[in-house]
Amino acid sequence: MLIPCEFSPKAQADMDRLDLDVCEEILLVAGTSLSRAPDNTTDADEGRVGLGNLLWRRGITRERRQQLLAAEARGEPVEEKGPGRHGWQYYILYRPMSWMEAARTGKPNGLMVVHILGEEEVAAVGIPVNYSRL
After folding, report:
1. Which of 87, 94, 97, 101 has a CA between 20 and 30 Å from the CA of residue 69?
2. With DSSP H G I counted as helix, E B as strand and the rest as coil, what are the percentages for the chain, rounded to 5?
């Protein structure tokens, strides 16, 4: 089930500094892959930040990860655009909306994207970073 989300002004500003292709990937992930209860024991691309309500999702869908891993296993080249050019090089930080945000947006069970951070930035927040291509 898709969970509706909104981008905070800070997250919108984060998106403004990214390439259009990366923004499209991030928007796809935000629209299809965010979870209210991420489980990084079954999906290494999502989890919680500490003990609070801040959650994270790497900028890649489960389906895209499977496609890329399968291509890599077959010995096919995995598309390389360079540093900062792939959605999977960024992390979506989000949280459940407050009741006031939910009322304002009309999304009672919605999620609020609060930041989009690069791999270098997330290490400071305590998110386990996988510096491999995937």
Report:
1. 94
2. 35, 20, 45
Give residue 109's region: left, alpha or beta (phi > 0; psi -120 to 50). Answer: alpha
Q: Which residues of 30-63 are buried (b: 16+ CB within 10 A; e: fewer)?
A: beebbeeebeeeeeebbbbbeeeebbbbbbbbee
Q: Are 52 and 127 in contact (CB under 8 A)?
A: no
Q: d(Cα 24, Cα 105) in Å, to the nearest integer?
A: 22
In angstroms, rounded to a whole number, what is the distance separating the alpha carbons of residues 46 and 26? 14
pLDDT tens, 83-111?
Answer: 668 888 899 999 999 999 989 888 888 99
**Of 121, 105, 94, 92, nearest to 28 (Cα)?**
92
Would you say the pTM of this structure is higher than 0.70?
yes
Residue 69 pLDDT? 84
Place of tokens 């290494």: 44
